[in-house]
TrEMBL record:
This is Transthyretin. Keywords: Hormone, Secreted, Signal, Sulfation, Thyroid hormone, Transport. It holds the Pfam family Transthyretin. It comes from Engystomops pustulosus. Residues 1-27 form the signal peptide. GO terms for biological process: purine nucleobase metabolic process; thyroid hormone transport. PROSITE patterns: TRANSTHYRETIN_1, TRANSTHYRETIN_2. The lineage of its organism: Eukaryota, Metazoa, Chordata, Craniata, Vertebrata.
């Protein structure tokens, strides 16, 4: 049973990543993506649909290791949020995306294991880049991966 679940999650993750982001794998991002320093795509793996209306909070770690809230957004009907932070605010550092999973699952009548899910990652430590974070979500687990662009020249 565990192996079957893993195979299903792997296939769904691949479908999520390569449906709209294939241009990132094969070349330069589109014009809209090139202006978007941080975006997220979330798939509801239970129903096999984009995770619409999921609360996303973006934090940046401060020098004292506490977290500064940068933005609060909600995924669109396609399970995506573009421009989670402004280009000029997306500097080198450690970032956290907090997904409000309990409220999301409760709205569809499911009691989840997680109150929320955190995705914590370093950004721009090897030059300014754009990040697409993909999340496959169930009430009891999640899987995440990232597509990261090549360094981008910034004009100051």
């Amino acid at each position: 049973m565990k192996m079957t679940c893993f195979k299903v999650l792997t296939v769904l993750t691949a479908a999520l990543l390569f449906s709209d982001t294939v241009q990132w794998v094969h070349g330069a991002p589109t014009q809209a993506e090139s202006k978007c320093p941080l975006m997220i795509k979330v798939l509801d793996a239970v129903r096999g649909i984009p995770a619409a209306k999921l609360s996303i909070k973006v934090y940046k770690q401060k020098e004292d290791k506490s977290w500064e809230l940068l933005s609060t957004r909600v995924t669109a009907e396609d399970g995506e949020v573009h421009d989670l932070v402004k280009e000029e605010d997306f500097v080198e550092g450690v970032y956290k995306l907090e997904l409000g999973t309990k409220r999301f699952w409760s709205k569809v009548g499911i009691s989840p294991f997680h109150e929320y899910v955190d995705v914590v990652f370093p950004a721009n430590d090897a030059g300014h880049r754009h990040y697409t974070i993909a999340v496959l979500l169930t009430p009891y687990s999640f899987s995440t991966t990232a597509l990261v662009s090549e360094p981008i020249e910034t004009h100051t």
